[in-house]
Write a structure and sequence with these properties.
Residues 25-47 are annotated as: Disordered. GO terms for molecular function: oxidoreductase activity. Residues 1-25 form the signal peptide. Residues 266-305 form the TRASH domain. This is YHS domain-containing protein. With 322 residues, this protein is α+β, with helices and mostly antiparallel strands. The protein has 2 domains: 90-262, Lipocalin; 267-322, no CATH class. 16% of the residues lie in helices and 37% in strands. The chain has 4 helices and 14 strands. The chain has helices at 8-21, 90-101, 295-303, 305-321; strands at residues 36-37, 43-44, 109-119, 122-133, 142-148, 153-161, 166-173, 178-193, 201-213, 222-229, 232-241, 244-255, 281-285, 288-292. The strands form 3 sheets. The protein has a 10-stranded antiparallel barrel. A two-stranded antiparallel sheet has the order 1-2. Helix 3 crosses helix 4. The longest helix has 17 residues, at 305-321. The radius of gyration is 41 Å and the shape is globular. Residues 6-81 and 259-263 have low confidence and may be disordered.
Length: 322
């Protein structure tokens, strides 16, 4: 009698049918689940939710280390540590910019100017007022100007870019358009004896600034501050014609009111507590008086007197030990 090979697939089918078909007659019979078996080895479980499968024991989970992120401040140039965008502490950056602007603070005060160019047959007369701005940007002090009835500009802001080692002048013209100039000294700062009193030293220099925004503008493409002495400077305007600049007007300005015609060593007790320039008015704190050179320094002092007194005392102590 020949033996027939055992059919594994048939046995699996019979086993499944038997297990599904058997049950107690006392309980209602449910329709058997349809389960098909792939004899080739692949199993289709149909509705997997009808069968309970024993899950393999899971390995113990290893807790991943927590990643911590530093807070990010958007839209500002100051980090949580009090440093500016270039990495320098704000206090140090402030001191560097202030030091670079000190040669120009001879322009502080009120000035009367007349244009060389004639308008309807007459020179234009205007008043310019320069003060310190130490509050708009704590790391970027500036000299700011307001003009009354100017033919050219309503206001200006002059500061120093330490990363570029250039001065930046931002002006708003009479039509409300903003223009940005950058440059450096074309004639360096020099102290010369005064004509009336050789013991009084006067500041002279030329600061040449070229238009950078808008870049394609040719009208008033260059501005030069030509400081003649402590009480007179010329504001020169140039158009770009071809590859060279042509002067189109000069505003001849003379100081009004208090004279700044003193050398630095003459300031004495009247030294401005903030800028180091010549103090023209006094401020007080806790019964003690100090000098400031302009309304901008007065506002900064009144906003935070302890800060400026501490800086002044530290600088004074440093100077005394040198």
């Amino acid at each position: 009698m020949s033996s027939r090979p055992f059919c594994t697939g048939c046995l699996m089918t019979l086993t499944l049918l038997f297990s599904v078909g058997c049950g107690s007659s006392d309980q209602p019979q449910n329709a058997p689940e349809q389960v098909s078996v792939d004899l080739g080895g692949g199993v289709d479980l149909g509705d997997a939710g009808a069968m309970e499968m024993e899950a393999a024991p899971s390995e113990p989970k290893t807790q991943k280390p927590v990643r911590r992120f530093q807070p990010v401040t958007l839209g500002g140039n100051q980090s949580a540590s009090g440093s500016s965008a270039d990495g320098a502490p704000e206090e140090q950056k402030f001191d560097n910019v202030l030091e670079a602007l000190k040669p120009l603070q001879i322009m502080l005060g009120e000035w009367g100017g007349t244009t060389f160019k004639k308008f309807d047959g007459f020179s234009s007369v205007e008043t310019l007022d320069w003060v310190w701005d130490l509050q708009s940007n704590p790391a970027q002090p500036a000299l700011v100007m307001q003009a009354d009835k100017s033919r050219y500009y309503e206001n200006a802001r002059l500061t120093y870019l330490a990363d570029k080692q250039k001065y930046r002048l931002t002006v708003t013209d009479k039509d409300g358009q903003k223009k940005v100039y950058e440059g450096e000294f074309s004639v360096p700062l020099t102290k010369i004896p005064g004509d009336d009193d050789p013991n009084v030293l006067h500041s002279t220099y030329k600061l040449s600034l070229a238009l950078v925004e808008p870049a394609d503008e040719k009208k008033h493409a260059q501005i030069i501050f030509n400081q003649q002495n402590n009480d007179r400077y010329m504001f020169e305007l140039y158009d770009l014609r071809g590859d060279s600049y042509a002067r189109v007007d000069t505003i001849n300005t003379r100081r009004k009111g208090t004279s700044f015609a003193k050398s630095d060593s003459d300031y004495g007790s009247k030294t401005c507590i903030i800028s180091g320039g010549l103090g023209t008015s006094q401020v007080s704190y806790q019964g003690k008086s100090y000098y400031v050179c302009c309304s901008g320094c007065r506002k900064a002092f009144e906003a935070n007197p302890e800060k400026w007194i501490a800086k002044y005392e530290a600088n004074k102590k440093k100077t005394d030990t040198q």
